[in-house]
Amino acid sequence: MSRSAPPGGPAPTPWRGVSFEERMATVDFRTGARAHITVDSDVCRSCTTRTCVTACPANLFAPTADGGILFNYEECFECGTCYMVCDNEGAITWTYPDGGDGVVFHHG
Predict the structure, then answer these.
(1) For the segment 59-76, what is each residue's pLDDT rounded down to a tens digit?
(2) How far apart are CA 103 and CA 78, in angstroms?
(3) Which one-letter DSSP state was computed for residue 79?
(4) Which domain holds residue 52?
(5) Distance of alpha carbon 23 from alpha carbon 18, whole angstroms
(6) Where are the beta strands (DSSP E) in the chain?
(7) How far apart are CA 45 and CA 66, in angstroms?
């Protein structure tokens, strides 16, 4: 199959016409014993922007009534967006999952 762009049109993609849900069905999340992302709710309480909540493409951050943040690393895409957008130093600690854990993509 050719992957070159047709004249005057966008390059073909293997995911065109495939819904997000169908794409995510091709992903395994291998949850490790060690969380690869930790969130310090004490630091988060002073945050006024909560950018991690809106920026996370997997919607894994949730504000708590006491001003902290709950985070569920089990279905994290490992994109690092939360770490990049966080305004408060020390609020989010991000590392890669241990070998064999994390996201495994299957396609084809």
Answers:
(1) 999 998 988 889 888 888
(2) 7
(3) -
(4) 36-97
(5) 7
(6) 27-30, 37-39, 61-63, 69-71, 92-94, 102-105
(7) 8
What are the angstrom distances between the C-alpha of 103 and each of 44, 76, 79?
A: 26, 8, 10
Count how many domains the chain has: 1
pTM for the model stands at: 0.67
| Residue 80 is assigned to a structural domain of this protein | yes
pLDDT over threshold 90, residue 24: no
Q: What is the C-alpha separation between 98 and 36, in angstroms, rounded?
A: 8
* CATH number of the structural domain spanning residue 89: 3.30.70.20
The tokens for 92 are: 């989010």
Our CA dihedral for 19, 71, 104, 34, rounded to 10 degrees, sits at -170
Query: Exposed, middle or buried, 36 (CB in 10 Å: 0-12/13-18/19+)?
Result: middle
Contacts of residue 43, Cβ cutoff 8 Å, sequence gap at least 6:
88, 89, 90, 91
